[in-house]
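Attaching the record inline, Q. Sequence:
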Amino acid sequence: MTNTTKGVVALLISSLGFALMSFLIKYSGDLPTVQKTFFRNFISMMISLALVVYYKEKLFGRRENQTLLLLRSTFGLMGVLINFYVIDRLVLSDAEILNKLSPFFTIILCAIFLKEHIKKFQFISIMIAFIGAVFIIKPSASSDALFALVGVLGALCAASAYTILRVLGDREKFFTVVFYFSTFSTIALLPFFIYQYEAMSTKQIFTLILAGICASLGQFGITIAYSFAPAREISIFIYSSILFTALLSIFIFEEIPDPLSIMGYFIIFSASYYMFMKNRKPKLNI
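Structure, as predicted:
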């Protein structure tokens, strides 16, 4: 396989991992969001710890990177908490597509804080994507619309974490960054986890452990994918997770997205595809 093909395969595996994580979080049942998030991060912490020790890297990174690592972990934790909260309250595929607004928010945040120029085609893509989000949110006073807006906030938090990762660059190994984030999240959530803890069945424990493993698969998969090929060549394939979650949503939870949501999926995917095709032509000045 070429490096691009390897990148596509790794990204598809990553997308499947994240889709299965979302499915397992919802499948684990009526448990506190903090409890689900704690398990997800604790498992990721143990897996990334094994990699950090194996490669003999610093557990918590270099001293000069502590502020960036702390900010990345804070926004990352907020994003995961909000995402899990929304997953339990919306159609699974709706929650997934709203979370996938994060790349568009990342462009905006990079323009504001990193002074990166927003190209014309990026601006068009952002506008189209937000129109698609309106179809999914369906603005009203209903609880579903409010939960959908919370989902958009989660995407913004995730984008904030990605923007900080852009600043961090390759100053730290990816497994060190994941370990730092997972450890920070585990420690931060521990008091709330203890206070809100609800007894779980063996099935729920096993389900949440699997969710943590799938989250790690998704995290490492996306990192490996971009080591094989640049994002402009393969990034569109990350949206395959929406297909995976839609199938799981329909066949497992019997949740069928309404026509407006499906239209929103199509619009957001079209915006992503448009931006992907333009990014593949970096010399085209439009």
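The longest helix spans residues 202-228. The chain has a mean pLDDT of 90.

More tomorrow.
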